[in-house]
Structures are given as structure tokens and as C-alpha cells.
DNA sequence: TAAATACCTG
DNA sequence: CAGGTATTTA
């Protein structure tokens, strides 16, 4: 069987996917993990000393943590309105010992050069003062209560599960856990955030009430768990206290409260992005995929030349019959459920640019478990009937744009995504997600073309980040003009060499792209395919994987559907040409190139961000 | 003529 | 990918 081409197996994806930063260790970046621009060394310390022990990931605890943060944030915001540039928004235990215990290491908070100074205008404008201290005391008291409640809350679970109710036998970072607890608790958090204004007491009340709620659980403490609970108690107390203290310290002393990292206050995002308000008019974003989502039996018989696209069109509805798994819970509600509390202009450039890896574009992604929808299993359905591909109407390509609605709503879901890349369980996850450090940046210069030593001492070259960005841009444009490149790489000092280098990149990209296309087209032919319409590039097809591997290695970017369409068309063109024997002509590819060259899509505005390279994790 | 590409190579 | 070269294009 040839899995290269197959039924459209993936439910349509909005082009406005949400990005989700994640670590490799299986957790979504916790809010605090996302703030990396803190100038303080201690803020770089494994922030969550209270988050490490596996059991700390217990839902309850997470919720508590969230609340604590809420409180802290409230305090941060108290003095000033929720201005994006001021809250340090990072708490981290300053305890060295604890820090060392952390397995994950956070680092490189250095801001990247190109970054705008940022709206961190009012730094040091807030000085907690006595009031804050009072609040701190109050907070500590609350923590004690909290501690008690945790004990109680954990009891019911103890019998069946390990200490603290954490799934002992299971990977603490299991998906469900992340999904459930994570987003949930943070949702609450975000609520508070709305009120901001630093009305601590109010927040506290809220919290207390919540705690009470939880304490209503029955007491069934198994003797065995008791000891563990005690430990938990201690740990929790200590850790939280430390965290709170350090945060407060920061709040009180941090003169440079950079970004607030709004992200952290938002509820998890929808992995699939499906719940996101899809672009008004689908453009290339609408796709015929739904087919695969339907039960096989329900799928239209497309084995034969599926000459029209009517089917696909009919499925163009906002909600496809996708597998339940594809519809994440977290923020599935309409935008309204995810109120935005940040001024639009701020999200736009400053904040977003700095929310490393999180783009409203929604293209950044992680390997969500959800991704493994039925369609994602190449070997399953699709493979069974490789040629039963839905037709891809060339006309559909006329709308080559992927409307990128960077609605504020997108922003909310970014940071707390309960998603994580659980691949090699690497520990470098955090560093991977970090923005380029100046150090790295410097090292990149060595990568520059030796012939491109620009006279200017500025020595600004293209770094790996730029390369990655270019690759991602390839998903939208195969033939970018130099002007376009200049527009999308504002942080690059273009000169002849740089320009040609980048042009060269795209040339190389195309080369690979066309080679793959030809290769697969020929393979299809040899496999007996006769109708080019049958050739559709799907996300689970081998061809796609090859391409994705090349342009989006980390797979942290959600490949736009428009690219799949272009790829499909390209494949079909090659198929036609080859099967027609045109490949005997030395320049038989020219016509194809010409066609494809006219199908460039608009590149999301976000790509224009000079700080964009920051989002390019893993160099 | 310079820039952009394609095609080949390492 | 970067180099190099040949060819095409504006």
C-alpha cells in the first residue's frame, strides 16, 4: 500500500491556529515558565519549585497555585492598571537548593535585540509598601488554610491513587491531567484577572470560598497515605511560601517589570483551534477534509473520479463532524468565554512578539495528543484506501489566502495550553522554548556565508531563527520577492549578500519541494493511479511528512491548509505531466513552476514581527 | 547588466 | 544548505 496519498483525513483546520508553547517534558509551559524576560537571575531559577514533585501536579494543587498567582498578580496590578508592560509576572523561588532540584532548567531571559523596548514603561512605579505586606500576611494565612484543605481534598483520592492523589502509576504529565486540571484552574485565574485592579481582598474571598468548597469532601484517609499527605503538606507550605515570598520580593523590588505575560492568565487554548472563530470566509482554509472524519461507512463513495467539489463545499460548515477527540474542552466556548483583558494594540506588537512561541496566528503548535486523531494514523483508514482521495478543486485555490484573524481571543488560549510535546522526554524543553539569547545570536554569525562579509561592521547575518522562519514562510510563499522578504525580516539588514542568501534559501526549499512532488507523483503513477484528482496531500500522508519534516522539523507550527492545497495541486500537476510523458522535455517542469509560482498565499502579518525569531524554538 | 532561477555538487 | 554555473528575465 502506498500511504502517500489518501483520503482527506484531517478535519479542516482553521488557518488561525493557536500556538501553544510547550515543553518536551510533557507539560504545557506553566505561566511562569513563560516569562523569560525577567532581568533577574532568580527569576530564571526553575520557577516552580512548588511544581516539581509529581504530586504537585495534582489538580488541586495546581488550582491552588493558580489562585496564589492570581493573588499575586492582583497585587502586581494593584498600583497600576493592567498595562502590559509592567507586571513582572514571574515568580520564582529564590531558594538555591530548591532551584537545583529542578530538573528542568530555565535560562536565557535575555531579551533579543530587535525587540522594542516594550511597553514596560512604568517600571518600578509600583512599590508595594506596607499595604502589600499586609496582603502578604493575609496571603500566608490563606496558605495555611489552603494547606489544610488540600489535605482534606486529597484524602478521597488517596486510597486509590498515590499520595496527593496524583496518578502514581501514570506519567504525571499525562494528557488528561494537563487538560483537566490545568486549563480548569487557570480559567478561574483568568476570571480574576479581569477584575485586576488589585483588589486583593476580593480575590482572596473568592479563593477562600473555593477552598471551602473543596473542604467539604469526605474524610477517608487511608493510613498509608497519611504520611505522604504530611509530606505533601510540608512541601506545599514551604514551596508556596517561598514562591509567594519571592514573587512579592519581585513585585516590590523589581524595577523592570517587563511584560505581564498576559498569556499566563488565560485559559488553555483549544488544541485544535477548531473552536476558534474561523475566518469569516474560509478562503483556502476551508477544506474538504471532513470526509475522513466521517465514519467510513458514511463517507461518500469517492473511489471514482470525484469530479466535483460539491461534497467538500457542503461540508464547509463551521463545525465539521469531527471526532470528539478533536474538540478540546478547555476553551471551546466562543470567544466570549475568553475575555480579553489586554488592549488590542498591545497584544499586537509588543506582547505577542514577546510571548515566545505564542502567536495569535495559531500556527504554533505542539504535538498535541489530540493531533493523533483517527486521521493521523496513516496506517489506518487512509492507508486502506490510499486512492480514495477527495478531489481537490483547483478553483478552490483561487482563494489562496488564509485569513488570519488575530483576534484578541486567540491570545488567551496561548500560554496555558495543556499540551506538551512528549517526545523524547527531553529536559531541554524549556531552553528550546526560550527566545534566542544574545549568545546564541552571536554564535549564529558563524553560519553566515563566508562570502557575505558585509563591509558594515554591523555584521548582521542570518541566523538559524531566520532560516526557520523562512522555512515556515515557505508554507505560504514559494516565490517570495526580495521585497517581500525584506518586509518580513525587519530585523535583518539586507544587503546584496543577505538578500541572495535568503533567495537562495527559498530556491533550495523549492528544489526540495519539487523533488518530492515529482518523486511522489511518479510513485503514484507506478502505483497505478490514473486520476490526478485522486492525489491529495494530507497531513498524514508520507509526502506531507516529508515536507513537514523539512520545513517544520519541530512540528511546532501548524501547517496551513492552503499549503496542503498547493501541495496537492503541485502533485497533481507533476502527475499529469509525467503521465503525459512530458518529462521527456528538458524543461517540462517549467510550466508547473509557473503555475505554482502564482499560488503564493499571503503570509500572516505576524511573520513581519521583527521579534518573530524568538518564537523559533529549538535551533 | 543585475537579479532571479534552475540545476548540480559537495 | 552553500557554491558555482548556466540561463532567463526585466
UniProtKB/TrEMBL annotation:
Q: Name one GO molecular function term.
A: DNA-binding transcription factor activity, RNA polymerase II-specific
Its main localization is nucleus
Q: Where is this region: Disordered?
A: 1-49, 79-130, 156-219, 264-334, 358-383
Q: Name one GO biological process term.
A: hepatocyte differentiation
User: Which SUPFAM superfamilies does UniProt cross-reference here?
Assistant: Homeodomain-like (SSF46689)
Q: Where does this protein have compositionally biased stretches of type Polar residues?
A: 1-13
Q: Where in the cell is it found?
A: Nucleus
The Prospero domain, residue ranges: 459-617
Provide the Gene Ontology terms for cellular component: cytoplasm; nucleus
Domain of life per record = Eukaryota
User: Which residue windows does the record flag with biased composition (Low complexity)?
Assistant: 369-380
Q: Which UniProt keywords apply?
A: DNA-binding, Homeobox, Nucleus, Transcription, Transcription regulation
Compositionally skewed regions (Basic and acidic residues) per UniProt: 201-219
Do the record's keywords include DNA-binding? Answer: yes
Can you name this protein?
Answer: Prospero domain-containing protein
The record lists the organism as: Sousa chinensis (Indo-pacific humpbacked dolphin)
Lineage per the UniProt record: Eukaryota, Metazoa, Chordata, Craniata, Vertebrata
Amino acid at each position: 500500500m502506498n500511504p502517500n496519498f489518501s483520503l482527506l483525513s484531517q478535519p479542516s483546520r482553521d488557518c488561525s491556529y493557536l500556538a501553544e508553547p510547550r515543553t518536551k517534558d510533557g507539560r504545557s509551559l506553566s505561566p511562569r515558565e513563560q516569562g523569560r524576560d525577567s532581568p533577574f537571575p532568580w527569576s530564571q531559577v526553575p520557577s516552580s519549585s512548588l511544581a516539581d514533585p509529581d504530586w504537585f501536579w495534582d489538580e488541586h494543587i495546581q488550582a491552588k497555585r493558580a489562585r496564589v498567582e492570581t493573588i499575586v498578580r492582583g497585587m502586581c496590578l494593584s498600583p497600576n492598571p493592567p498595562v502590559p508592560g509592567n507586571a513582572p509576572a514571574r515568580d520564582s523561588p529564590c531558594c538555591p537548593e530548591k532551584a537545583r532540584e529542578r530538573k528542568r532548567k530555565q535560562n536565557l531571559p535575555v531579551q533579543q535585540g530587535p525587540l522594542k523596548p516594550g511597553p514596560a514603561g512604568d517600571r518600578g512605579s509600583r512599590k508595594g509598601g506596607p499595604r502589600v505586606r499586609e496582603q502578604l500576611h493575609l496571603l500566608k494565612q490563606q496558605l495555611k488554610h489552603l494547606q489544610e484543605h488540600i489535605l482534606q481534598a486529597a484524602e478521597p483520592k488517596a486510597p486509590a491513587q498515590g499520595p496527593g492523589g496524583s496518578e502514581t502509576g501514570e506519567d504525571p504529565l499525562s494528557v488528561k491531567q494537563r487538560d483537566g486540571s490545568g486549563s480548569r484552574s487557570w480559567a478561574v485565574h483568568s476570571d480574576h484577572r479581569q477584575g485586576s485592579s488589585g483588589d486583593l481582598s476580593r480575590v482572596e474571598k473568592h479563593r477562600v470560598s473555593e477552598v471551602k468548597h473543596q473542604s467539604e469532601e469526605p474524610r477517608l484517609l487511608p493510613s498509608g497515605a497519611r504520611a505522604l499527605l504530611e509530606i505533601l503538606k510540608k512541601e506545599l507550605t514551604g514551596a508556596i511560601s517561598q514562591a509567594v515570598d519571592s514573587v512579592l520580593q519581585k513585585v516590590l523590588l523589581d524595577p523592570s517589570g517587563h511584560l505581564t505575560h498576559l498569556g499566563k492568565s488565560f485559559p488553555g487554548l483549544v488544541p485544535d483551534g477548531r473552536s476558534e472563530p474561523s475566518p469569516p470566509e474560509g478562503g483556502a482554509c476551508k477544506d474538504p477534509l471532513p470526509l475522513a472524519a466521517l465514519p467510513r461507512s458514511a463517507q461518500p463513495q469517492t473511489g471514482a473520479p470525484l469530479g466535483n467539489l460539491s461534497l467538500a463545499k457542503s461540508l464547509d460548515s463551521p463545525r465539521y463532524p469531527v471526532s470528539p477527540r478533536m474538540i478540546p474542552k478547555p476553551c471551546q466556548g466562543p470567544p466570549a468565554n475568553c475575555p480579553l483583558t489586554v488592549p488590542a494594540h498591545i497584544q499586537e506588537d509588543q506582547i505577542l512578539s514577546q510571548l515566545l512561541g505564542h502567536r495569535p496566528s495559531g500556527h504554533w503548535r505542539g504535538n498535541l495528543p489530540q493531533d493523533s486523531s483517527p486521521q493521523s494514523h496513516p496506517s489506518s483508514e487512509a492507508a486502506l484506501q490510499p486512492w480514495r482521495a477527495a478531489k481537490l478543486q483547483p478553483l478552490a485555490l483561487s482563494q489562496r489566502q488564509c485569513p488570519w484573524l488575530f483576534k484578541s481571543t486567540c491570545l488567551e488560549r496561548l500560554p496555558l495550553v495543556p499540551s506538551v510535546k512528549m517526545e523524547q522526554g527531553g529536559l531541554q524543553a524549556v531552553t528550546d522554548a526560550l527566545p534566542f539569547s544574545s549568545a546564541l545570536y552571536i554564535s549564529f554569525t558563524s553560519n553566515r556565508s563566508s562570502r557575505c562579509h558585509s563591509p558594515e561592521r554591523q555584521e548582521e547575518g542570518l541566523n538559524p531563527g531566520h532560516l526557520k522562519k523562512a522555512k515556515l514562510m515557505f508554507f505560504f510563499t514559494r516565490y517570495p520577492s526580495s521585497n517581500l522578504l525584506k518586509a518580513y525580516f525587519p530585523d535583518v539588514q539586507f544587503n546584496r549578500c543577505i538578500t541572495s542568501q535568503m533567495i537562495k534559501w527559498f530556491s533550495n526549499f523549492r528544489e526540495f519541494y519539487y523533488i518530492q512532488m515529482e518523486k511522489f507523483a511518479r510513485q503514484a503513477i507506478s502505483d497505478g493511479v490514473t486520476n490526478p484528482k485522486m492525489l491529495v496531500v494530507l497531513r498524514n500522508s508520507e509526502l506531507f511528512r516529508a515536507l513537514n519534516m523539512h520545513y517544520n522539523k519541530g512540528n511546532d507550527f501548524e501547517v496551513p491548509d492552503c499549503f496542503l492545497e498547493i501541495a496537492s495541486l503541485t502533485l497533481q500537476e507533476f502527475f499529469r505531466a509525467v503521465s503525459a510523458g512530458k518529462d521527456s522535455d528538458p524543461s517540462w517542469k517549467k510550466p508547473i513552476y509557473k503555475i505554482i509560482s502564482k499560488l503564493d498565499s499571503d503570509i500572516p502579518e505576524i511573520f513581519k514581527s521583527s521579534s518573530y525569531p524568538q518564537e523559533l524554538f529549538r535551533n
